[in-house]
Amino acid sequence: MHMTQTTERPGAHNPHTMRAMVLHAAGQPLRLEQRPLPSPAAGELRLRVLACAVCRTDLHVVDGDLPRHTLPIVPGHEIVGEVEALGAHVQGHRIGDRVGVPWLGHTCGHCAFCLGGRENLCDAPRFTGYDRDGGFASHVVAEAAFCLPLGDAAQPPERIAPLMCAGLIGWRSLKAAGEGARRLGLYGFGAAAHLIAQVAAAQGREIHAFTRPGDDAGQAFARSLGAVWAGGSDETPPHPLDAAIIFAPAGALVPLALQAVRKGGRVVCGGIHMSDIPAFPYRLLWEERELVSVANLTRADGREFLERVRAHPPEVHVTTYALEQANEAMADLRAGRVQGAAVLLP
Ligand SMILES: [Zn+2]
Ligand SMILES: [Zn+2]
Fold it and tell me: Which of 13, 101, 236, 245 has the fewest Cβ atoms within 10 Å of its own Cβ atom?
């Protein structure tokens, strides 16, 4: 038998069980379960979860919109945790450190994408809360090499958790929009857009926020975070946009966004899942408009983005829920009742 060596904090309270909200079948509510506390294997960390934000991708996993992966599974991939135990051969992490655990939980390290600096497209990845248990729990085990050090973050954990996906995927989407995109449209003003609007405004870009038609509160929220214009997704912005990012999972927004960008403009789809894109006239794409998607993240994105928010911390708006209220938090997110990000506290 192969034994893995673990190092526990001396004298630490060491409960033998953990709590987790578990998905057993798509479309069913998560169930609260007590489980034995896992030991980290070689190269892994066990974290005490301090906060875990709820991402739209968690809804897609729970609702069965994505191809079925591991079941049962504990969702959650926007985790802030404190290192509680180290597996063998872990370097660069200490017990008591605060780290973030994002969606990208493992890559193979040797496929063409990994070797080419695009580990977000790895051929054999493992994703947190999809292929391996995530942060809708009191504890989680993660690969140390994919945990992002948070340093002495002064912010409370619930305000850091949404940075781990909403922030990070938003950042990758913003980079995909291009440095020259000064007039930027954001479709869907949820957790990701509320963070990226602030980052982009600080870079001197003009933010145009598109919400569901008639969502006056959402539009006012966008303006309060620096948007120069906010309106319904069916409205035409006052000027053609240089680029647009679609965060909402609605394919019908694609032709609308293409119509809103100028010649040579770019539309970035930032989500993992979207409803079907309706047919649209070729003239919307013509004149070298581009339509691209963003998938996952790289660890380099994580380091870069965390450095950026350390220098210019955005206002992070959160609604917190107890871990046991995960189903309620997801229902609120699904119904558009959350302004900013929903975050679970174990
Ligand atoms: Zn790979
Ligand atoms: Zn996510």
Answer: 13
Distance (angstroms) between ligand 1 centre and the Cα of 77 equals: 20
Angle between helices 191-202 and 216-224 (to 10 degrees): 30
* CA–centroid distance, residue 297 to ligand 1 (Å): 13
CB of 268 within 8 A of CB of 175?
Answer: no
> Domain residues of the chain, as ranges?
7-163+297-304+316-345, 167-293
Q: How far is the CA of 120 from the centre of ligand 1 (A)?
A: 8
- What is the C-alpha to C-alpha distance for residues 228 and 107, in angstroms, rounded to an integer? 40
**Nearest ligand to residue 272 Cα:** 2
CATH topology of domain 167-293: Rossmann fold (3.40.50)
Residue 292 vs residues 11, 103, 177, 223: alpha-carbon distances, Å: 52, 20, 9, 27
| CA 2–ligand 2 middle distance (angstroms) | 34
**pLDDT tens per residue, the chain (346 residues)?**
344 444 444 444 456 899 999 999 999 999 999 999 999 999 999 999 999 999 999 999 999 999 878 999 999 999 999 999 999 999 999 999 999 999 999 999 999 999 999 999 999 999 999 999 999 999 999 999 999 999 876 789 999 999 999 999 999 999 999 999 999 999 999 999 999 999 999 999 999 999 999 999 999 999 999 999 999 999 999 999 999 999 999 999 999 999 999 999 999 999 999 999 999 999 999 999 999 999 999 999 999 999 999 988 999 999 999 999 999 999 999 998 999 999 999 9
